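Researcher: Quick test of sequence recovery. Tokens follow.
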């Protein structure tokens, strides 16, 4: 489904990604872990088409399509969703209107009919209930006045409504308490299936206790230096990154 080969990228003239090779088959969840400044968030931004990041080499295809040649809205229509580490506030933009506009845009791209207000609210209320959110959040402006946990749950609400084929979760667990972490993880797990894949970027093993990945990758200095199963995350939690980074440096 997603195939990345030799991907390099920079921002403001500084190279961040230095040759990423990664394949995520359909229906799998992959976790990316690594120290600060390794390039984890940059990878998610490049894949989603965030402005300011320049791809300098390599390829990234999604179901055979060159996503690097696509605009961000085209990537979203193709089924790629990014949950931000720091969700932005949109004063004056109602949460329900924002969600309905985004959902109908994606539905049009898929050749599906748009949802009217009644149909949308029925789906939105069901999703809000599943995520243990208050329906009042649908009436508020996007992320305005939301707590950190509410912002992250709102990102998962968007994912639940949009039903992407690939979700890029950029440190969705940061700033969450245990209850909010569990609720967010349950929202992700509810989407898991043969038509859903995810790239989960995290610093902490605790999230992966709830969202058990098929594979874990260690990203350091712009490269994936080691891959393994869920047990790799437990090793990192116990021993840190220094040993693995040292081994990679010796092998280079």
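Model:
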């Amino acid at each position: 489904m997603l195939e990345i080969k030799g991907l390099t990228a920079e921002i403001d003239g500084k190279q961040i990604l230095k040759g990423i090779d990664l394949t995520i088959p359909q229906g799998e969840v992959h976790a990316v872990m690594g120290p600060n400044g390794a390039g984890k968030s940059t990878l998610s931004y490049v894949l989603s088409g965030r402005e300011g990041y320049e791809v300098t080499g390599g390829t990234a295809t999604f179901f055979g399509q060159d996503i690097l040649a696509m605009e961000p809205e085209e990537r979203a229509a193709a089924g790629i969703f990014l949950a931000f580490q720091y969700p932005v506030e949109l004063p004056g933009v109602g949460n329900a209107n924002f969600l309905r506009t985004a959902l109908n845009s994606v539905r049009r791209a898929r050749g599906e009919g748009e949802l009217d207000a009644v149909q949308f609210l029925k789906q939105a209320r069901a999703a809000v209930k599943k995520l243990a959110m208050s329906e009042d959040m649908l009436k508020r402006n996007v992320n305005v006045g939301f707590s950190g946990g509410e912002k992250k749950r709102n990102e998962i609400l968007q994912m639940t409504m949009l039903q992407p084929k690939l979700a890029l979760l950029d440190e969705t667990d940061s700033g969450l308490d245990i209850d909010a972490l569990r609720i967010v993880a349950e929202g992700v797990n509810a989407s898991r299936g043969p038509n859903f894949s995810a790239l989960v970027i995290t610093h902490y093993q605790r999230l992966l206790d709830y969202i058990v990945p098929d594979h874990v990758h260690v990203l350091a200095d712009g490269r994936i230096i080691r891959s393994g199963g869920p047990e790799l995350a437990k090793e990192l939690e116990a021993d840190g990154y220094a040993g693995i980074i040292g081994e990679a440096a010796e092998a280079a």
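The radius of gyration is 18 Å.
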